[in-house]
Every structure is written in structure tokens, then in C-alpha cells.
Amino acid sequence: MLGRRLGFAVALAVAATAVTTTPADAADHWTVSLTGAVTAVVAPTDEGGLTFAVSRGDTTVLAPAPLGLRTKAADLTRDLRFLRRTDRVVDEHYSMTTGKRLQRHAHAAETTLSFTGVGETRLDVVVRAAADGVAYRYVLPAGGTITGEASSFTPPAAAPAWLLPYSPNYEKVRVETTASGAAAGDYGFPSLFDTGEGSYTLLTESDVDGRYSGARLAHPAGTATYAIKLADPAVTGEGPFTTPWRVAITGDLATVTESTLVDDLAPPSKLGDPSWVRPGKVAWSWLSEHDSPGDPGRQKQYADFAARHGWPYVLIDEGWDASWVPEVIRYARARGVEVILWFRWNTLDTDAERAKWLPLVKSWGAAGIKVDFMDSDTQARFGFYDDIARATAQQRLMLNFHGATVPRGFQRTWPHVMSFEAVRGAEQLKTRAATNTMFPFTRNVVGSMDYTPTAFVVSDRDTTDAHEVATFFVYESGWQHGADKPENYEARPEALHTLDQLPTVWDETRLLSGRPGREAVFARRSGDRWFVGGIEAGPATKVTASLDFLGHGRWLADTLRDGPSGLLREKSTVTAGGQLTVPVAANGGFVTVLCPAQPGRASCDQEVRQVPATRLSVTPETAEGTSVDVSATFELPRGGASLYDVELAPIAPAGWRVTGEPVTRPVLSAGQTVSGTWRFTGGPAGTTDLPVAATYRFRGDPADRPVHVEGATSAFVPPPAPTGTVEVSALPFLAASNGWGPVERDQSNGDTAEGDGRPLTIAGTTYAHGLGTNAPSSVTVWLGGACTAFSAVTGVDDEADGPASVTFRVLGDDGRVLADTPVLRPADGAHPVQADVTGVRRLTLEVTDGGDGEDFDHADWAEATVTCAGAQR
């Protein structure tokens, strides 16, 4: 029976459209294999249950381990009766926007084994076998509530193992142990085992979304068993209900490392047109200087650095403010640099929040967002991943997940997802060569890894500078965030030269040599250039890499490595089929760029994008009313090369209309200008930027994308002036900023999400109305000169559980101080504030830190009211 079924599976490999159904029989096991190299075996047990095993050639890499589901309706781990077997071949070609290989071919034999259990409950087990591994999943044709899986894996007991003690952000230290010697507990995906005879097996899962719960591996002490454990106690779905794939990638270490099986198993892309998705290098400031994301001037310096070196992105992390971000985005884009903005996930976890923020940041010109602190593998959190991916795709915003789960094929389904963190990366400020050399064979196998590499600033590291540079190459990530500050990179020009040449996506990837915890040496191709690089953990050595993958002829080789007194660059010529030999320092690394040695070619360098300097002036700077004429002039200064496909056009914000056509020029020569005037009409109350943008191309642009230069008139449409006695919390905010989370209306500041505060309470007294803030904060409302008096009860909210200290200020037009308070602490209780606001158009309520930092500074403007025209006396 084994020989007949295995032979049939092999035949399927050449019959791509063949589907065969075998009726119930008395088989003692069922095999699934594409070529015979990797074989999955499903077998019945005496109790009517099922087991799953995997062999590679003659080696059993996973011994028989239980299969099955437990549901509220039936125990489908026993008393199963076989119905039928259905076979087909999966043969798919697809493209990726990120990853170790952009063009993919998924080819696998697939078998569905159908059973009935107690109460005639149907259970299908779907098994796929490819050249690089196997996977299985369950289908409940009638649906149901799953309360657990029997699914387990059993590698050889003595198998060396590289495991990650589980945490929902996957940031613990990965350990080297053995399958049976590992401590009891839960372990996160992916888990790697050296399963003997040259075989390695990596366990993980694929195609997890909001229909199911994320899983991990539960390991009892002293055994080699690793059982699937769900994050939720139960998961319910309507039929036919399909679970995620349980995946075992197996082969030699190169096969495992180069595998795309996790993506192959995932659903196809949901983007109709991914042409707007652009991976690339990112300048990022948070690691090297935590406060810098709150400094717009410093963020412009990062944009300048990115522009000088052709890096297409800058990430503004936690601390940015809506009051200045649009202007920084315009500054960066004029220099050819796009901006990514950081968000805490629970700022975007409802439809209303996503509808508020995503169109707004898109209107500012942001290219994407980084979403942080999900820290959960529950079904609900996977539902959030679905929702935010769908919502950002609609806005054409790219996406990076931090504080996140591991990739499970998500980047195939949503190609605008550039990376996931889910690793103990450089931001832990403790870099270790041994764990660095585990990541390429574990975490990075299953998808892009936002390690944030090349952090010279990390003082507690045992890695060399060349090792740090090489992580930028060895680790794959669609967005590769350089983790250090411009000054530290530019102080190491040889390192920066190599970083500037490195792509972040690849046409091919090959593992040349390695061992987890010891060494990782890769070759990757981008176009006609190959890159070879590696990182080492251990004493100084020589790395010798075969160059069999190169095309014919001679190749130029440009190598960066550690020298006796710093980074060293060496140039040489190598031959296809020869070898590359590089001395590597202890815990060191290297990167070599290779290109065909064509006549007259002295370097493998490709041009670093340098965007021409231009000027755009927009007038007036400010305006008031619902009809505004905006003029703009775009100029290419003398001395610059001509620009092409120039267009100067207005951009209508939401609620505004524009009269007038774009102005275009096929060519704009040095010293020439293009101008236009447009009328913006309509507009909601409040302050809105009325933008005009020039777009153009320039000859020889290696990125081949238009440059966007934008300016704007700040237009203010006054809301209706308040009448009578009005709670400030009921007025629209013209502007609001807060030191922690949003400013809250009629509740305390709470935490970071909107609406998560408590009743406003100062010294035990609760107030029904007011504003809950955290220093430093500022709220501006419109009075329109119609009011005469302001009053409030101020103080530190009782929810502050630390040494809070704040001051309150009431400001009129032009920042004139109308009233203020001394420094207030929790023991000071409530402090009444009154101010004469006669004639004031804009009223600003400001809270500042009392001098000991902003922690715990939850400050209330309780019962804040204004008395205006029409108020009863």
C-alpha cells in the first residue's frame, strides 16, 4: 500500500491539473510526497485517532505525533472513520514586493483525507508536501467551536534545537538546547531542530488571520513533544471552517533557510495593483536618541542625511506631533525622501479611529505607518492585523508591524506590509554575535525581520563594526531601518559607502555556509550584481565562499571588512567558479559587492540618488475665510540639469473645492519657473492647509519615480462663536496636543487610547465636565471675540499614581497670558482659575510640567466654561 500511494503522489507532480478521489479503504497509513524527497505520513491509531510523521529520504525527521481537533460538539482526536482521499497538485507562480526572492513558484502535492467522528461530525485533514517541507490543516465542513488541537510535533530527542521562549512580542533571547533537554514551557515560532543526517526541520505556521487564534509550542519537560497551544480558549467559525497550516520546513540548512514555504501556503495577494509599494532603506532616530522624534528640526536633519545618501525613507517614531509633521513631510519629500509615521496600535483599533487618522496622514503625504505594541496572538488581535492591513491598503499606505507577532505568510496576502519586528533586535541595546547568527536560520526564514541593524551606538555589544554593517545585508527586511544617527554613520565613511549600495529586496538568495549560533554567510542577487556577506560568532577566521553561482567570466569584488585599525575596503578580481576568501575578525563580518568586469568598469557602485535642488513659493502664507486665492511659483535654480514632466497643481483637501487647471511643462530648464493661481472654496471650520505641489522627473533617476515638492497656505475658517455659558469640552478644538495619549473630553487623561479615561476627580471631588490632559498639553478653542469670562477648577487628577507636578496657563491671542497657577501637586487639591477673555478670538489652555518631568502629570481643567454673548445674568 505504501509503495502504491507514494508512486501515485509522484505521478501527480507531472499532472498539474489531475484530481483523484479514492473511496474509503482499509489503509494502515497514507503518504503524501511531491518527489519522494520529503514525505508526510498520516496513520490511524488503535483508538481511531491520527498521527503525523515526516521523513526526508530514509531519515525520519518528525516521529509520529497526534493530529486532531476537539470541539464543543465532538472529540475529533479519536473514533474517526475514514471516508475518502482526494489528491491534487498545487502549482502557482506569484510575485512578492519583499523577501529573499521576488519571483516565487509554489509546487506541492496536496491530499485531503476525509473522516467522520462522533455524531457523524466531518473532519478533513489537508496535507501538502513540497520539495522543502510539509504542512497540514483541518477543515470542519459544517463549522463549529474548536476548543483545542491535538496537533503535535516530535523531533528526535537528542536533536540540537534553537528555541525562543514564548512571549507575545517574540523578543526574548533565543536559546540553544536539545529537543528533549529544553526547559518545560511554551516556545514561539519558528523553532529549529537539527534532525540528523544533514537534515534540519523548522516548525511554524502559515495563513493565520482573524478567523483563528495564533499558536505556540507547548513542551513538557523531558520529552521531545512540542504540542500546538492556542492563544484563545475557543475559536468558532461557520462552515466550511479552515484552520491555519501547521508547517514543517525540512531539508539541509540551505533548503530551510532559502525556503518560501510559509508564503507559498498563504492566500494570494489582495492588492490589485502593488506598483505603489516601494521597499527601501530608512533613516531612523529613536534608538540612537530617544527624544528626537519629538524634534522637527532634528527630523529634518535625518531627512537631509537620507537625501544625501539616496535612502528613500525617514521614520518619525513615537513623539511626533500633528502640529509640525505635515511641514516636515513636505521638507523631506522635496528632497526625494518619503516619511513613515509611528502609531500605537490602539490608536487605530476601531473603524472610527482608522477613518480619522489614515486619510489624514495620507493627506499630509506620508508614505506609510509603523504600528506598535500589539503584543498578543489572540484571534481578536489577528483581526486587528486584518483590519489595519485592509485600511492602509485602501489609502495606499505601506505598513510595518512592531511589538508584533511573527510573519505567517501575511506579506504575500498584503504586499504593502514591509516588515515585522518579532525579534530581540538592536533596540534592546545589547548586541550579541551568537544570537545574531541564529536569526537568519530561525526568525528571518519566515518573513521580513525589522531587527533595525547597524547600530554602532550600542555600547554593550561584542560585535565588530563590520559585523554591524553585515547585519544590514544578512537580515532580510523590505524596510531596513538603519538604527544609528547620521553623525555615527558619516564618521565611518567606508561603512556608509557599503550601506548606500545595499538593496533591501532580492532576486535570489543562497546560503553559502553557516550554523546557527556560529556563522551565517549568504549570497544575494539584485539585477546584475551579487552580494556576498556574513556574520561570525567566535574567534577570528577566514571565510572561503564558492562562487559557483556567478555567471561566466571575471568579476570585480569590493569587500568591506574589519582591518587592524578600523573598517577596511579591498578590491580584487574573481572568476566565476572560483572562491572568495575573506579574513574575518572575532565576532566580525564582511560584505562583498560583485559585478561583471566589463571593459572600462572600475567599480560595482551604482549611482546614489541625488534629487535636484528646487524652490517652491506659495502665497499667501495664511488666510481666513471660505474663499482663498493661492498662487505658487516653482523654480529650478541656475546651474541645475533640466527637469522633465513638470506639473504644478493644487490639491483639494477634504471639504474644499478648487477652480483652475494644473500647469505643465514637458521640460523646465535651469533658471526657468512655472507659476499658477487657483481658488479654493468651501471648507469646514478650523485650520486647513491648502497645498500646491510640483512634481517632476529628472534624467538618470535610479529610482525612476516623480519627486514631489509641496507648499501650502494655512487657511482658517472660523467656527460659529459660542453663545451663552458653554462648557469648553463641548467646543471644537482648533488645535490640541498632549503629552500622553489624546486630550480627553469630560474624563481624565487615562492612557494612550481615545476615550479610555475615568471621571475627572481632584482631591476626592468628581466633576462632570472638563478636559483631561497630561503635561505638556495645549488646547485651542474659538471664541471669536464673543465671550467675556473663563473659569475652571484646575488640579492633578486623582488617577496620578506618582510624583506629579503641573502648572496651568490661560492664553489669549498672540500668546498673551490671561491667568496662570503656581506649580500644583496632588496634595494641593483643586485650584480655581478665572480670566477676563473680553475680545479674545482664540483661547488656549496650556499645561506645563512643574519641573520634575512629565511622568504622572495628569492635569484636569474641571468645569472649564466660558461666558459669552447671550448668557443669562
List the keywords.
873 residues; mainly beta; Beta-galactosidase, Chain A, domain 5; Immunoglobulin-like; Jelly Rolls
Structure summarized in a few sentences:
With 873 residues, the chain is mostly beta strands. It contains twelve helices and 59 strands. Helix 6 runs parallel beside helix 7 (379-395).
β-strand percent reads 35-45%
Unreliable spans are 1-17
Q: So how many helices?
A: 12
Task: Please tell me the CATH architecture of the domain at 2-264 by its name.
Answer: Distorted Sandwich
Instruction: Specify the structural class.
Output: mainly beta
CATH topology tier name of the domain at 2-264: Beta-galactosidase, Chain A, domain 5
CATH top level of the domain at 2-264? Mainly Beta
User: How many E strands?
Assistant: 59
Note the overall shape. globular
Helix percent reads 10-25%
Largest sheet: 14 strands, antiparallel
Radius of gyration, Cα only, in angstroms? Answer: 31 Å
- First-last Cα distance: 98 Å
Mean pLDDT: 95
